[in-house]
C-alpha cells in the first residue's frame, strides 16, 4: 500500500491524489498508476474543478489510478491483485474484472455511499472478485 501512496504523489489533481499497484501472486509489481489526464495532455490543459458542468469539471477527462495501473502492466494481470488508495468506482471495477484481476485491496472507502462506488462493489460481488480493506497495523488505520 505504501507504493500506491508514493505513486499517488505524481498526480497533479489538487484535490485527490490516488494511486494503484497491480501485483502478481508473488507480489511482483506488474503495473503502477495514478489519477491524471490521458497520456500526452499537459496538467493545465483541462479543468481540475469538482463542480460545474461536465465540460468544466475533471470527471469526464481524468483517468483513474486503477485504470492507469492496468494499462501500464507489461503482462496480462490474470489472477493478480491490485492495491488502491481508494475503493474503485464502477468504471475501474469493470476494467479490473475484464482484465482478470482477482482481488482488490483498498485503503479508503470514503465514497461508499456514492452510487458509482456502490455499483463497483456490486460488480465485484457478482463477478467473484474479492475485495478487502487494508488496515495499517502500524498506525491502527
Briefly say what this structure is.
This protein is an alpha/beta fold. The protein contains 4 helices and 5 strands, in the order H-E-E-H-E-H-E-H-E.
Low-confidence stretches: none
Shape descriptor: globular
How much helix is in the residues?
25-40%
N-to-C order of helices and strands: HEEHEHEHE
CATH topology: Cytidine Deaminase, domain 2
Kindly provide the radius of gyration, computed on alpha-carbon positions and rounded to a whole number of angstroms: 15 Å
- For CATH, the homologous superfamily is named as Cytidine Deaminase, domain 2
Biggest sheet, in brief? 5 strands, mixed
Q: For the residues shown, what is the average pLDDT?
A: 95
Distance between the terminal alpha carbons, to the nearest Å?
12 Å
Which oligomerization state do the chains in this entry correspond to?
Answer: single chain
* Domain module tally: 1
What fraction of residues sit in β-strands? 15-25%
What would you say this structure looks like, in words?
With 141 residues, the chain is α/β, with parallel strands linked by helices. The chain has one domain (2-35, 65-133): Cytidine Deaminase, domain 2. It is built from four helices and five strands. It has helices at 2-8, 65-71, 90-98, 115-127; strands at 19-23, 29-34, 81-86, 103-108, 130-133. A five-stranded mixed sheet has the order 2-1-3-4-5. Helix 3 runs parallel beside helix 4 (115-127). The chain is globular, with a radius of gyration of 15 Å.
Amino acid at each position: 500500500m505504501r507504493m500506491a501512496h508514493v505513486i499517488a504523489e505524481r498526480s497533479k489533481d489538487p484535490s485527490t491524489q490516488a494511486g494503484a499497484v497491480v501485483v502478481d501472486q508473488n507480489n511482483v509489481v506488474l503495473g503502477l498508476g495514478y489519477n491524471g489526464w490521458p497520456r500526452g495532455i499537459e496538467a493545465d490543459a483541462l479543468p481540475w474543478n469538482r463542480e460545474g458542468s461536465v465540460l468544466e469539471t475533471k470527471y469526464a477527462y481524468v483517468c483513474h489510478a486503477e485504470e492507469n495501473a492496468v494499462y501500464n502492466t507489461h503482462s496480462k494481470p490474470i489472477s493478480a491483485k491490485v492495491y488502491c488508495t481508494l475503493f474503485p468506482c464502477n468504471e475501474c471495477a469493470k476494467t479490473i474484472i475484464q482484465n482478470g484481476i482477482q482481488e482488490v485491496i483498498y485503503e479508503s472507502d470514503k465514497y461508499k455511499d456514492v452510487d458509482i462506488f456502490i455499483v463497483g462493489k456490486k460488480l465485484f460481488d457478482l463477478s467473484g472478485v474479492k475485495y478487502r480493506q487494508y488496515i495499517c497495523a502500524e498506525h491502527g488505520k
